[in-house]
Amino acid sequence: MPKKRSGGGLSPTQQAAKFLGVSVLAGALLAGIALPAFGALGLAAKGSVESFDELPANLKTPPLSQRTTILDAAGGQIATVYSRDRTVVDLKNISPYMQKAIIAIEDSRFYEHGAVDPKGVLRALNQNVQSSGVSQGASTLTQQLVKNVAVEEAGDDPTKVAQATQQTIGRKIKELKYAIQLEEELSKKKILENYLNITFFGEQAYGVEAASQRYFSTHAKDLALPQAALLAGLVQSPSFYDPVSHPQAATERRNTVLKRMAEVGDISATEAATAQKAPLGLKVKEPKNGCITAAKGASFFCKYVERVFLSDPVFGKTKEERAKIWNRGGLTIRTTLQPQAQKSVQDSLKDHVYKSDKVAAATTLVEPGTGKILGMGQSKPYGYGKNETEYNYSVSSSMGGSNYGFPTGSTFKPFVAAAALEEGRPVNQQYSSPYQMEYPSPVQTCDNKPWVNNNGEKLENESESEKGPYQLKKAMELSVNTYFVQMISDIGLCPVVKMTDALHVVQGNGDKLPEVPAIALGSKGISPLTMATAYAAFASRGMYCTPIAIESITQKVGDQQKSLEVPKSTCSRAMSEKTADTVNTLLSGVVDSGTGQQAGLSGRANAGKTGTTDSRKNAWFVGYTPNLAGAVWVGSATQKVEMTDITIGGVYHAQVYGGDTPGPIWRDAMTGALSGKEAPPFNLVNIPNPPSKDRGDGDKNDDGNNGDGNGNGNNGGNDGGFLTGLLTNGGSSNGGNNSNNGGTFFQGQTNGNGNGGGRG
Fold first, then answer.
1. Where are the stretches annotated Disordered (predicted)?
2. Full-model pTM
3. 287-309 pLDDT, tens per residue?
C-alpha cells in the first residue's frame, strides 16, 4: 500500500482554497505563474474552489515510455528502439547525490511541505515583484511531476504537448489538484523516484538513468557529486545548459547547484568548492536509436520484427493499439535470428556482391519444421545515402519490401512438379519437350473456364540441342521449359494453384498467382522469404510452417516484468511425404549434375533450383538441407539492369545465371550457417535414369536467351513480357511490351501481368 500523507492536515479542498485565496488576494503568483493584477483571474477565491472541486478526481498516469531492446536468439543485442530513450530505475539505484541535488535546486523544502509550498510562493512573489516580471516560479517537484505526466500522455502529438504545457490558470488549477492527489497517495520518496524517471534531461535522454548513460556512460547509481549537480541543473533548460553544446553555461549552472546544495546543508562548503573546480568529465555516449543502428547487419531483420509487431493482431486489435504499445516500449524482444547464421549471410553477401554494384543481392535463411527466420540480409545496407536503401528485398511489400517481389524464373518449377506428383503422375513422367512449341491450349483452370492460347504464342528451351523426349528427373536438372509447360497443360492449372496455396506462395504485393501457364516459368514477382519458407516444406517432408521472427517478449510494467503473447508458427501438411521425398531427390540432382552444381554443398545432403528471368534482370538460387532452407536473389530493385556484360563483386559476367552468381552466395551462406551442425540425410526415392540419348546435354547453365517465351520467341524477350502479356490478358495485342522500363518503381508489372518470364 502506498504511504498516505495528510497534506498538512487540511482537506484537499481546504488546502486548495487556502493556497488559491492567498495567491489571488496577493494578485500575483499561482503555482509558478505571475499574475499582474487581481482581475487577471476573473474569479473570486470561492469560485476558484468550486471549479477546483469539479475537476476529475484521478490523475491519469500513463506508463512511462522506455527503450525497447531487440535480441538475437542467443540473447545478444541487435538494437534498441524507442520513442523516448528511458530506462526506469528504483530510487535505491539513483545516487544519493542526485537525489539531493535535484531537491536542492528545484524544491529545497520538498520534504517539509505538501503539494504546494506557501513559503515558496511568497518567495517567488517577492522576487517577481522586485524584477517586475516572472523571474522565479514556485512549482513544487510534485507539481512538476504532474506536468511531466501530462506531457508523457501527449506523446508525440504537438497539439496535445502544447495543451499540456500552456501557461494558463485553468491548467495550473488542474495541475494543483492532481499534485494534491499524488501527495495524498504516494510517499515523498516515490514522488521523487517518479520525477527522476520522467524528467527530460536533453540529448534525447528521458529519466536520470538514460541521462547518466548519455553524458557520462555510467549508471545513475554511480553518479559522483559533480556529475549529479550537472544533471540536476539541466532540468531548468536542457538545451541552454546542454554540456555538449554549451559547456561554459553548463559549468556555471552546475556550480550554482553545488552552491545551493551547500546552502541547504546537503554538502559542506569545502565539498562544494572542490566539486566546482572539477572538469565536466563528459564521456558522451551517442544516441543509438532504431534499426539503422542494428548490429550484425541485422537492420532489415530488425525492421521486419517491428513490422510484425505493428501488424499482428496478437499485439492489439487495432493498428493504433499496437502502435501505442510499441511506442510505450519497455519491451525485451528475443528473436529467432541465429548469430552464426546471420554472420554467415552477411559474410557471403560481402564476398560476392559489393554495395556499389549496379545490382543487389538478398538472402534469407529459414529453419524447416519451425518457420524460424535464422538469417536475413542484403548487399545494400540499411540507410538513406548512396548505395543504401530502406527497402527490405527479402520480404513482401506490406512488410517493407519491394512493390511486387521479383520474378522467380525456374525456381517455380518444383511447385509444378510437386503438384503433378500429388495428382498421381509417375516420377518418370515423360513429355516430348521439343526445342520450340506453341503453348498447349486449352488448359483447365479452377473455375472451369479454360485458358486458351488465342494467338499461337510459342516458347523455347535453352538451346536447339535441348529437345526431348525427357523424363522428369532430367527435365528438372536441365530446367527444360517446354517440359514443364507440357506438364502444367497435362494436369491443369488448378493443382498448381492448390499446391502454391498450401505453400503460401503469393506475389510480393500479396495477390494470388494468376491462373496462366506462364507461372510455370516464374513470371510473377515473389519475395525471397516466401520462396525460402516454401522450399523449407520440401525439406521437412511436406510440412509447411509459417515464418516467425519473434521467440518471446517481456514488458516492464512498474517494477514487474510480464510476458506478452507472440505469434506462433502454424504448420500444416502441404503435400505427402512421398511427394516431398521425390522432389528432394529431383532437386538433389540439380546440385549434383544439373544447373546448380556451383551451389552444391560438401559433406551434407542438399538440394535446390536455379532461376533466371527475361533479359537477365533477376537471378535466383533457392535450396535447402534437411535442417536449413535459404533463398538468394540477385538483381536490380528497379528491374532496369540487364545482367549481361556486368561485373558483380569484382567478378566479370558475360551473362549472369542462377547457378553462377546466386548459387555461390547460397553455398557460402549455408556452409557457414551449418558449420558444426548435424548433417542429416534426405529420404531419397529411387528414380531410374532413362536410356541415354546420343546427344550432349547442351548448356548446363540455368538460363538462356529465351526464358519462358515472354519475348518474341527468338532472343529471350527483350520486349520483356510480350508473350506473358498476351497470355494473361487473354490475347491483348501489346502484352506488356515495355518491360525494359521495369515499371515506375521496383519490379514493374505491366497491367499486373508480370513482365519477367522464367528461363530454365
1. 677-760
2. 0.78
3. 888 899 999 899 999 999 999 99
